[in-house]
Description:
The chain is mostly helical.
Amino acid sequence: MDHLQQQTPYQLLGGEAVLRRLVDRFYDIMATDARAAGIHAMHGPDTTSIRQRFFEFLSGWLGGPQLFIEKYGHPRLRARHMSFAIGEAERDQWLLCMFQAMAEIPMEAALREHLEEAFTRTADFMRNT
């Protein structure tokens, strides 16, 4: 994982095009996998804008361009999600979708492990019930 210190996860993942693919797969899985029905129900039928915002957030979160902060300011993740009841089940559904989407993106094992740990910590932090 030494090269993770030299390049950002955003760069190691493959930049904008690969990140957009990851975000789109994440939402496609959420919409089609019955195991994610709980978190899918929290989203409106048109996920176009949330896909874009999530892409912008992940871009900066992974060390790429700070698109979200430039548009909306500090992410304030917990505050932005407080109107949704997020417990262990919702956390696990979210992680299921993200890990499945990540499994479809070629990446080095060290990057995959780093991202799985980071996503798990962040998803757990989002719990509010």
